[in-house]
Amino acid sequence: QVDVAAMVQLFGYVDVTDTGFIVAILSIAFNPLFWNVVARWEHKTRALSRVFGSPRAACYCLGAVILVLNCVRSHCFTEAMKSQPKLEGWDYHWTYYSGLAISAVGTLFVISSFLALGFTGTFLGDYFGILMEEKVTSFPFSVLDNPMYWGSTAIYLGWSLMHASPAGLLLTAVVAISYTIAVLYEGPFTEEIYRRKQKGVKSK
Questions:
Q1: Phi, psi (deg, nearest 5) at residue 143
Q2: How far is CA 19 from the centre of its chain?
Q3: What is the pLDDT of residue 10?
Q4: Cα 86 to Cα 165: distance, rounded to the nearest angstrom
Q5: Are 191 and 124 a contacting pair, CB within 8 Å?
Q6: What is the pLDDT of residue 136?
Q7: What is the pLDDT of residue 72?
Q8: Burial level of 1, CB count in 10 A (0-12/13-18/19+)?
Q9: What is the residue-wise DSSP string for 82-109?
Q10: Domain residue extents for the chain
Q11: Residue 123 CB neighbour total at 10 angstroms
Q12: What average pLDDT does the chain have?
């Protein structure tokens, strides 16, 4: 059962009307919305591929923009944490090192996901017509689905614990929710792309 009193105490440290906090939430929500809208638009129109001369060049450009937006999101997240109070009783070595360990695991998942998928596999190459030969099942995909997303969430969780930040924990929950929605939105569409590929192969 959820300890309501503990939850009230935790969020009593968070000023949800703070400008920096609101900006952080908007940046968290904007990123997956942006890349999904742009990638689907590209899949439907091939406009970016025409502008940049090839699907691969267009995918690399979108990937670079996503990386910049992720850096902006992380900056907004960190600034929102720093502007709000720390949680009393959490600002100790055990909390810091627990957060550090969680961030390390998250970083492992993010980096290993990127190495397994490659740049175009990571940054929505499927939507540009750059399809993988087969589904990746090696680590970390052998451990959990969407390890890039959950690894990123773990990094934010660890970062929040390292700062003993209730605001960071709340923002981490927003990250998790935004990624959950993104997975529900992306998963079926990506599966349909590969289903059409299989149909095309069988029809030849």
A1: -100, -45
A2: 22
A3: 66
A4: 5
A5: no
A6: 86
A7: 98
A8: exposed
A9: HTSPPPTTT-SHHHHHHHHHHHHHHHHH
A10: 4-199
A11: 24
A12: 90
